[in-house]
């Protein structure tokens, strides 16, 4: 059985509650043990880095240090949490001076960063650690005929460059195929949704959301699957405003990939937080239990 | 007998004297360093007057050793050795101290520079006293030459040598010579037809009495040294008897098996299982590809054999080997094209109408897969608009940092061809247009006049996601026009990627096989980037063409000719002198422990089973000194870099420290105890 | 006046093809670096015998640098790997003798890396300066002449008194 | 000692890149060609880099470019000179917040500061506080929209009613104060 | 033979093995007695330093001096015998290169005293008494020789004509040397009397090209009886050690530990071992190399300098403690 330290992040506490619920359910079903960090703090999304770089590293390092205590690799379902934790881990490992500086602060909470663990995104855990074969073997309700647009967003892939596929990732598609759904190809799958701009530069963000929805819809998507609470909120909750702003009539459900997985694994819809959507996830109804 | 050392300190104008107090140093050396008979400073030691100074002192003062403190020995060691030689002193009794590159140019403080210069001179003086007279070894040069790689570089080199009357073996691993140039339609900047200028040269090679063309062959093993290399060549089975085949091509016609040609046609066209790469191939002998041949795969067919009028098909043919003795080797193995799939943002392999430069070359070629018509992947539609993307995989730290040198010009050539053959609008997206050779900028101007568009900006991506009106069913090229500072989306029908030139995938292995080194990227390393671009660190091995670095055909030809000229020089002198900086094993001290046996990359060290000692073949030894440093019995000495010489240099360099602590050597003599 | 600063003496072995050329390049490019390093040219980093390093230290050098072509770029193909192994072995022994790692350094510098070589030299000089003088011979220079003389005197005295 | 130039100052702010200088930028425009928000920016990212190198401090700080950057990192992975453009945008944000210079009427800076203050107060983020405190400084239309959506989400159980807190908050605050001086109110 | 020569034998810091080795020449000792009057041999016969002190300078024809120099008294004797002898021979590894006593150079005097007079379990020294160079007693001051921080070789104290290597030297080699001296067929002063190649030359084991993946300790393998031990991973110093012993150890399956010292012209025995072994490690990965060395050779000084630390370039480990006390007290 695989065990990881689980860092849900602030978004999953409420806004992305269904992500949290479905994560817990699907991992349990697939024999992955998630041990929630006992007193995690916010990773700060991207805004920390607007204000103070060292502070940003410190906050992320606190979570890392707690995971190190348990000697578990850290898994984050939120792309921003993942990216911040991943790069904090990387920079601190590579730069002992920086690590020393940060450790000085961590002392106040009796913690220490030593660079023992790795940071993974939840979807990586499914694709690499659990494995597509294993997932396929556990599917009891294949989502046959469901046309899903996999939406990667930015920070699962970027700015990491050691992925050979930063420009042309396929693993999300593979995962969707493994649960029987039909991943639709659409060119904007890796493009930014403008999530971090939605409060500060609404006009830009809404137009980015529109482009994405348009591209997914043009290519026949029934639902969009995301792997990040920010992307989910952005693409789903602002559809109405996009429609107002641009005179469009989008109504595409945006769900978490874990919710789709949950359905395929035969977990009841309720347990997966299905029903909390603002844009109703009607295309999922035939597969729900 | 103590030596008489002459010390010469160069001002190098003000280069040295501006920082180092040369008068003071000269005086100090004369007064303080043991055995220094003459110590002088002079404005320009490398000038003929400077050299005369040394020569006169050797003759008049009877100097037995010379130290020149000046620039780096890489610059003028030869000069001062020659001066010694002229005055009758063995040239190896001269030593330089680099007080320009290592002192005056790099030290800020004048006093510190003067101090460092003194130490460097003390080291040189200490060392030179232990130098030995050395004589270069002479070995004869075999007049045969091996040329590896039958591209335009190899063709040129072979013809030059053959025309000069020397035998050449030209080894090419493909079934025909010609290399990349044979794939092109036109060549910049004059737009001559590639075939028109290449084919005659190829047939000259094929027909030349002095050239033994070995196509479909590979070098298996190389041993020996300059003047006498032994090479083993593997002749891959062609399954066609070269003696009998007349090149009529009936077998090709009759062969029922068609396969995609990924080599010559870069996946744009088809070939038969028995085929030659292109109609003008030299030699004009087809080769059976066993991977696809029906007979080899399923045991049935033999159509080619049945129809061949001369009975040349031989399914039983085996790989064979050929051993050659040659005096020199020229490597002209060329380049590979960058794999554009490594930059998925440009869509190659995903978006049908994105082409590589080489694909486009084949498309333009009248004998190519589209018979010279410029069309989209569907084979019929003419593009109405084309974007050419520069620097794909070049000038990019994520791929290759260097400029591939030929793609700007090729892009201009393509622009011209597109506009000549279609009505399409052509746009080049570039970072810089690099047109540095004769006639190149003029060619750029011509394209500007012809109406080709230019946008300064490296393309960010090519997509088929339409967003704006007019983008539907087009490829959209997204780029910043950096001269305007705006992002542009250009909808077009066709995109051509000017892919980087890369070292051959096997370049490092080939380098190792021939005992030469490669740059970090994999280009063969020349002996000197400016002064000796076709020789390598291994004597007798030369390089030419794109194997040395990206270059165009004129430069490739020049190098091919230059390498051939170097080889001719070697052959006409008839013998070659080998640097005497070599290692020697003293048999009486060698215990035959065999530690050294694996250490020499040039296989200079042998173990003599009968005597149970190791032995160094001086002709193979390059004098690196690794074995010298390794021998636990200290049975190996390295000429000109002996332990004693280096110890003496260390002592000299530390002259000021040693005298400070009184611990000159561990063994101390004491006054006798008073009775 | 500023207090006199300790100026370490460092001997550097530069291979003819890469690092010596890097030093040439640093010169041609007028890249300034600290004057404390005194260079010896060897054909290859593979020529550097550990004895050279020990000798330099025993003669009073405060540090030794061995510089060669990057692994995989040796002009003699692979000899710098031997330098690498010997360096590893030497460092292992020097540690056992109580010599700090910073005092003996293996530096890769290609012919194009004048800047890098200069930087490495500066860094090493600073590190060794921070460590202070090595002054290795002081480890064994005991002044015992007086004691021996006393033995001699004692014996002479004893001889004067007839047994 | 000479005062560091603006471009040095920005380079120094790129801690993780060890001040990876912007000097190697070849002004190729890949970043700007890539950028999804470039049409809203008054200068393209490439130009901003060029302007930093030219030490056009006032012009750079007055630009909205860096507040519009969506942190998508697409430019960063593509830059042929391996310049971390997105990180540079962060550096500019930090610089302008510290120096209290940025374009009038931008929401970004206020938002960022509020957000960070919240976290420093509680260890976790709390959307309603955030949204409202930043909205004081922005227009009414957004306020209505945001309140509308907030309520909708609260009804769906997706908005927290009470602000969350971490447990070892004291330690946490002391930890933070070892990195940056905390303001009195936090 | 007209006049008998005068012979002196002396031991300084040594184990006595060299003295026994002299006796190992068996009945040939009689021939020695025929040729020489033995004027001084404290190990075997009574004698007085005083009588030597009274002798004319250079009146001893041959002095065989074994043992390293550890104390001021030994150095005094070395100087004295030097002065009185025509030919001074550093006899055996201790005099030649410090040998096992020289390994004391990994510690300081302070550390040695601490161990010897305090820390060893068998020590009973409640008052914590340590040897002092000077002790005041009622009768006056008592002097003891000074115990040096650093063991020296004989030639680090006085000039030496010849060296006879080995721990101890093989009787045959001793006899060869004596014959050479008797017959006046001596090499140039300063030479080692012995072979000019290394133990591998005498070793019967089969050798191939060497590539080492792992160093082994002697208890880890049962070595193949035919093949070179080094090729089996055992650190055999035969490669660097002067021949002369007849490859005694490797012949019986035990790796050479280097007692015959370095080959002709070598300045540092340990460096030769280091460089030779490192050269043939079969890896190009720095971390792997470090690991092979660290794990295979945990004690580099004991392995590479077992006999030659005192004669090596660096002579000893860095001196951190101890130092001036004794020397200062005596001055
Ligand atoms: C798209 C494109 C367009 C171009 N257009 C022009 C142009 O218009 N004008 C111009 O001047 N230049 C042009 N060039 C550049 C030109 O291709 C090169 O300058 C030239 O081909 C270099 O010739 P070469 O002989 O060095 O190498 P190659 O042409 O690569 O020939 C090397 C030969 O060696 C053989 N070989 C390789 N390895 C081995 C081995 N191990 N053993 C045996 N044989 C081996 C290969 O099979 C090949 O035949 C263009 C390049 C490209 C990519
Ligand atoms: C400012 C500048 C900087 C440069 N820097 C570099 C650099 O850093 N690296 C580099 O690779 N290249 C550099 N170059 C280019 C370099 O100068 C040339 O590549 C090179 O000098 C060409 O050599 P050459 O022998 O062909 O011609 P030249 O150097 O011009 O030599 C021609 C010789 O012929 C003699 N001559 C002319 N006519 C006659 C006649 N009728 N009869 C007899 N003798 C005659 C002339 O007096 C002259 O001595 C530089 C060029 C310039 C202008
Ligand atoms: S010898 Fe060297 S240093 Fe002297 S003038 Fe010539 S180039 Fe300059
Ligand atoms: S035997 Fe092979 S090569 Fe010959 S005709 Fe048949 S398929 Fe073609
Ligand atoms: S030649 Fe032109 S297109 Fe090719 S790499 Fe150089 S600049 Fe780019
Ligand atoms: S290492 Fe030395 S002793 Fe051993 S075989 Fe080679 S030359 Fe002979
Ligand atoms: S010196 Fe170098 S090239 Fe010569 S034999 Fe020894 S290892 Fe080979
Ligand atoms: S992509 Fe990189 S090199 Fe190009 S302009 Fe942007 S920052 Fe400069
Ligand atoms: S990271 Fe910022 S600047 Fe770069 S492409 Fe994305 S939005 Fe544009
Ligand atoms: S066993 Fe020792 S002495 Fe014998 S050959 Fe091997 S290394 Fe030499």
Give a short overview.
The complex is a heteropentamer of chains A (289), B (675), C (163), D (186) and E (331). Chain B is 28% helix and 24% strand.
Briefly, what CATH class of chain C? Alpha Beta
CATH overall fold name of chain C: Rossmann fold
Number of strands of chain C: 4
Q: What name is given to the CATH topology of the largest domain in chain D?
A: Fumarate Reductase Iron-sulfur Protein, Chain B, domain 2
Total of helices of chain C: 5
Overall geometry of chain C comes to elongated
**Dominant shape of chain D:** globular
User: Unreliable runs of chain D, pLDDT <50, ≥5 residues?
Assistant: 128-141
Describe the largest sheet of chain C: 4 strands, parallel
* Count of all domains of chain C: 1
Most extensive interface: A-D, 64 and 63 residues
CATH class of the largest domain in chain D: Mainly Alpha
What is the first-to-last residue Cα distance of chain D? 37 Å
Tally of structural domains of chain D: 2
How would you describe this protein?
- Chain A is an alpha/beta fold and 289 residues long.
- Chain A is built from twelve helices and eight strands.
- Chain A has a four-stranded parallel β-sheet, with helices on both faces. Chain A has a four-stranded parallel β-sheet with strand order 6-5-7-8, with helices on both faces.
- With 675 residues, chain B is an alpha/beta fold.
- Chain B folds into five domains: 5-134, Rossmann fold (3-Layer(aba) Sandwich), CATH 3.40.50; 138-236 and 319-334 and 504-578, FAD/NAD(P)-binding domain, CATH 3.50.50; 238-317, 2-Layer Sandwich (Alpha-Beta Plaits); 338-502, FAD/NAD(P)-binding domain; 583-639, Alpha-Beta Plaits.
- Chain B has a five-stranded parallel β-sheet, covered by helices on one side. In chain B, strands 20-27-21-22-23 form a five-stranded parallel β-sheet.
- In chain B, helix 1 packs parallel to helix 5, helix 2 (48-61) crosses helix 3 (73-86) and helix 12 (407-421) packs parallel to helix 13.
- Chain B is globular and about 90 Å long.
- The two termini of chain B are 36 Å apart.
- Chain C is α/β, with parallel strands linked by helices and 163 residues long.
- Chain C contains five helices and four strands.
- In chain C, strand 3, helix 3 and strand 4 form a beta-alpha-beta unit.
- The longest helix of chain C is centred in the middle third of the chain and has 19 residues, at 79-97.
- Chain D folds into two domains: 6-99, Alpha-helical ferredoxin (Fumarate Reductase Iron-sulfur Protein, Chain B, domain 2, Orthogonal Bundle); 108-183, no CATH class.
- Chain D starts with 5 loop residues before the first helix and ends in a 7-residue tail after the last helix.
- The chains are: A alpha/beta (289), B alpha/beta (675), C alpha/beta (163), D mainly alpha (186), E alpha/beta (331).
- Chains in contact: A-B, A-D, B-C, B-D, B-E, C-E.
- The interface between A and B is small, with 10 and 9 residues.
- Residues 390-391, 394-395, 403-405, 407-408, 431-432, 434, 498 of chain B line the site of one iron/sulfur cluster.
- The site of one iron/sulfur cluster (SF4) has 13 residues of chain B, from strand 21 and helix 12.
């Amino acid at each position: 059985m695989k065990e990881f330290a689980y860092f849900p992040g602030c978004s999953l506490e409420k806004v992305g509650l269904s992500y949290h619920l479905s994560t817990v359910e699907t991992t349990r079903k697939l024999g992955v043990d998630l041990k929630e960090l006992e007193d995690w703090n916010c990773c700060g999304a991207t805004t920390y880095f607007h204000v103070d770089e060292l502070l940003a590293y410190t906050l992320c390092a606190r979570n890392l240090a707690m995971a190190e205590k348990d000697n578990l690799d850290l898994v984050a379902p939120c792309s921003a949490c993942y990216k911040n934790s991943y790069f904090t881990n990387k920079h601190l490992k590579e730069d002992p001076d920086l690590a020393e500086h940060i450790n000085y602060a961590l002392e106040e909470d009796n913690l220490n960063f030593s660079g023992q663990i790795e940071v993974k995104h939840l979807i990586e855990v499914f694709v690499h650690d659990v494995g597509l074969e294993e997932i396929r073997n556990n599917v009891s309700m294949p989502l046959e005929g469901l046309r899903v647009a996999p939406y990667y967003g930015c920070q699962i892939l970027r700015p990491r460059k050691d992925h050979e596929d930063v420009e042309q990732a396929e693993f999300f598609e593979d995962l969707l195929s493994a649960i029987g759904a039909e991943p639709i190809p659409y060119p904007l799958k890796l493009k930014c949704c403008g999530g971090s701009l939605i409060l500060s530069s609404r006009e830009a963000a809404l137009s980015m959301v529109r482009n994405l929805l348009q591209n997914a819809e043009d290519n026949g998507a029934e639902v969009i699957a995301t792997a990040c609470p920010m992307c989910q909120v952005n693409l789903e909750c602002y559809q109405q405003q996009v429609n107002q702003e641009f005179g469009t009539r989008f109504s595409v459900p945006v769900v978490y990939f874990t919710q789709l997985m949950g359905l395929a694994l035969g977990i009841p819809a309720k347990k997966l937080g299905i029903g909390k959507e603002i844009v109703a996830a009607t295309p999922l109804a035939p597969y729900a239990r | 007998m103590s030596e008489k050392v002459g010390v010469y300190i160069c001002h190098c104008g003000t280069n040295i004297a501006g920082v180092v107090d040369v008068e003071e140093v000269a005086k100090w050396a004369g007064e303080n360093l043991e055995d220094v008979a003459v110590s002088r400073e002079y404005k320009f030691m490398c000038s003929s007057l400077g050299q005369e100074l040394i020569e006169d002192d050797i003759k008049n003062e009877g100097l037995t050793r010379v130290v020149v403190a000046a620039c780096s020995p890489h610059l003028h060691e030869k000069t001062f050795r020659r001066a010694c030689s002229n005055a009758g002193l063995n040239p190896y009794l001269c030593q330089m101290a680099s007080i320009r590159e290592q002192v005056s140019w790099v030290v800020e403080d004048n006093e510190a520079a003067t101090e460092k210069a003194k130490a460097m001179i003390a080291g040189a003086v200490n060392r030179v006293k232990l130098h030995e007279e050395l004589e270069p070894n002479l070995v004869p040069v075999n007049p045969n030459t091996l040329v590896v790689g039958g591209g335009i570089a190899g063709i040129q080199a072979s013809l030059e040598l053959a025309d000069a009357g020397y035998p050449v073996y030209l080894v090419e691993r493909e079934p025909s010579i010609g290399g990349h140039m044979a794939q092109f339609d036109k060549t910049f900047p004059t737009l001559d037809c590639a075939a028109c200028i290449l084919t005659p040269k190829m047939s000259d090679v094929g027909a030349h009495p002095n050239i033994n063309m070995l196509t479909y062959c590979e070098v298996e093993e190389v041993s020996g040294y300059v003047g006498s290399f032994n090479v083993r060549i593997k002749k891959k089975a062609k399954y066609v008897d070269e003696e009998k085949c007349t090149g009529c091509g009936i077998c090709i016609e009759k062969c029922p098996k068609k396969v995609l040609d990924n080599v010559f046609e870069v996946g744009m066209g088809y070939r038969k299982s028995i085929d030659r790469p292109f109609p003008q191939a030299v030699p004009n002998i087809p080769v059976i590809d066993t991977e696809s041949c029906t007979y080899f795969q399923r045991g049935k067919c033999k159509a080619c054999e049945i129809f061949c009028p001369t009975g040349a098909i031989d399914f039983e043919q085996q790989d064979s080997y050929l051993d050659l003795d040659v005096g020199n080797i020229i490597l002209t193995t060329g380049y590979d094209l960058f794999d554009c799939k490594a930059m998925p943002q440009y869509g190659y392999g995903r978006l049908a109408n994105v082409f590589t430069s080489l694909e486009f070359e084949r498309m333009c070629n009248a004998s190519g897969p589209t018979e010279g018509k410029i069309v989209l992947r569907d084979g019929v539609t003419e593009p109405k608009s084309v974007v050419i993307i520069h620097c794909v995989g070049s000038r990019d730290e994520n791929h290759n940092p260097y400029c591939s040198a030929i793609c700007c010009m090729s892009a201009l050539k393509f622009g011209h061809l597109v506009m000549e053959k279609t009505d399409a609008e052509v746009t080049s997206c570039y970072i810089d247009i690099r047109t540095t050779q004769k006639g190149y900028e003029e060619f750029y101007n011509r394209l500007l006049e012809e109406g080709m568009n230019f946008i300064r900006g490296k393309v960010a991506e090519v997509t088929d996601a339409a967003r704006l009106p007019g983008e539907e069913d087009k490829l959209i090229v997204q780029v910043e026009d950096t001269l305007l500072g705006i992002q542009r989306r250009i909808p077009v029908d066709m995109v051509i990627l000017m892919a980087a030139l890369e070292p051959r995938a096997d370049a490092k292995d080939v380098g190792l096989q021939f005992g030469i080194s490669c740059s970090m990227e994999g280009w063969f390393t020349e002996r000197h980037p400016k002064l000796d671009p076709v020789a390598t660190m291994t004597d007798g091995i030369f390089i030419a063409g794109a194997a040395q670095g990206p270059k165009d055909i004129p430069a490739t030809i020049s190098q091919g000719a230059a390498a051939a000229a170097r080889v001719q020089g070697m052959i006409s002198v008839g013998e070659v002198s080998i640097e005497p900086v070599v290692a020697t094993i003293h048999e009486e001290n060698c215990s035959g422990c065999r530690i050294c046996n694996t250490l020499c990359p040039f296989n200079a060290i042998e173990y003599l089973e009968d005597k149970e000692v190791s032995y160094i073949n001086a002709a193979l030894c390059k004098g690196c000194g690794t074995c010298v440093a390794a021998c636990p019995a200290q049975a190996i000495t390295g000429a000109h870099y002996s332990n004693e010489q280096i110890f003496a240099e260390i002592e000299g360099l530390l002259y000021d420290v040693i005298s400070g602590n009184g611990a000159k050597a561990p063994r101390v003599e004491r006054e006798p105890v008073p009775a | 006046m500023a207090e006199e600063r300790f100026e370490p003496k460092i001997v550097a072995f530069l291979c003819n093809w890469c690092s010596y050329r890097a030093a040439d390049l640093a010169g041609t490019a007028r890249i300034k670096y600290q004057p404390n390093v005194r260079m010896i040219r060897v054909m290859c980093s593979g020529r550097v015998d550990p004895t050279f390093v020990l000798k330099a230290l025993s003669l009073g050098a405060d540090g030794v640098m061995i510089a060669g072509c990057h692994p995989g770029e040796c002009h003699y193909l692979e000899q710098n790997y031997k330098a690498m192994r010997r360096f590893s072995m030497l460092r292992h022994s020097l540690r056992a003798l109580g010599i700090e790692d910073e005092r003996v350094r293996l530096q890769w510098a290609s012919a194009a890396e004048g800047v890098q070589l200069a930087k490495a030299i500066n860094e090493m000089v600073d590190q060794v300066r921070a460590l202070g003088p090595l002054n290795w011979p002081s480890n064994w220079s005991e002044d015992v002449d007086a004691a021996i003389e006393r033995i001699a005197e004692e014996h002479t005295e004893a001889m004067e008194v007839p047994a | 000692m000479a005062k560091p130039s603006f471009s040095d100052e920005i380079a120094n702010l790129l801690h993780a890149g060890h001040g990876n200088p912007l000097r190697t930028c070849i002004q190729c425009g890949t970043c700007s060609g890539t950028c999804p928000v470039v049409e809203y920016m008054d200068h393209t990212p490439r130009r901003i880099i060029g302007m930093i190198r030219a030490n056009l401090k006032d012009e750079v700080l007055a630009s909205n470019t860096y507040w519009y950057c969506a942190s998508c990192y697409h430019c960063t992975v593509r830059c042929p000179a391996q310049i971390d453009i997105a990180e540079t945008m962060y550096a500019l944000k930090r610089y302008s917040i510290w120096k209290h210079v940025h374009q009038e009427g931008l929401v970004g800076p206020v938002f960022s500061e509020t957000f960070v203050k919240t976290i420093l107060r509680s260890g976790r983020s709390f959307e309603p506080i955030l949204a409202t405190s930043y909205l004081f400084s922005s227009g009414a239309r957004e306020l209505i929209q945001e309140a509308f959506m907030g309520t909708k989400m609260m009804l769906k159980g997706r908005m927290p009613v009470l602000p969350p807190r971490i447990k070892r908050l004291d330690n946490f605050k002391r930890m933070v104060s070892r990195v940056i001086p905390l303001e009195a109110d936090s | 033979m007209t006049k008998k020569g005068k012979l002196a034998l002396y031991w300084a810091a040594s184990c006595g093995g060299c003295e026994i080795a002299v006796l190992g020449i068996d009945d040939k000792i009689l021939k020695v007695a025929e040729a020489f009057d033995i004027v001084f041999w404290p190990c075997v016969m009574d004698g007085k330093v005083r009588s030597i002190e009274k002798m004319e300078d250079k009146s001893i024809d041959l002095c065989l001096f074994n043992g390293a120099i550890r104390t001021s008294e030994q150095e005094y004797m070395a100087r004295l015998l030097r002065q009185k002898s025509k030919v001074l021979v550093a006899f055996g590894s201790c005099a030649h290169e410090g040998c096992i006593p020289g390994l004391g150079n990994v510690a300081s005097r302070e550390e040695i005293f601490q161990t010897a007079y305090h820390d060893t379990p068998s020590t009973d020294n409640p008052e914590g008494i340590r040897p002092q160079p000077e002790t005041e007693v009622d009768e006056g001051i008592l002097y003891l020789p000074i115990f040096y921080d650093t063991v020296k070789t004989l030639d680090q104290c006085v000039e030496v004509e010849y060296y006879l290597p080995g721990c101890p030297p093989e009787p045959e080699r001793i006899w060869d040397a004596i014959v050479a001296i008797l017959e006046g067929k001596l090499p140039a002063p300063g030479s080692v009397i012995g072979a000019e190649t290394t133990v591998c030359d005498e070793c019967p084991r089969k050798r191939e090209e060497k590539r080492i993946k792992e160093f082994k300790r002697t208890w880890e393998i049962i070595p193949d009886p035919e093949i070179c031990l080094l090729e089996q991973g055992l650190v055999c110093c035969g490669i660097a050690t002067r021949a002369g012993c007849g490859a005694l150890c490797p012949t019986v399956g035990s790796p050479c530990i280097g007692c015959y010292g370095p080959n002709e012209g070598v300045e540092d025995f340990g460096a030769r071992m280091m460089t030779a072994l490192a050269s043939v490690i079969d890896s190009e990965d720095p971390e792997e190399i470090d690991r092979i060395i660290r794990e295979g050779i945990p004690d580099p000084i004991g392995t590479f300098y077992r006999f030659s630390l005192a004669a090596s370039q660096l002579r000893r480990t860095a001196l951190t403690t101890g130092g001036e006390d004794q020397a200062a007290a005596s001055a």
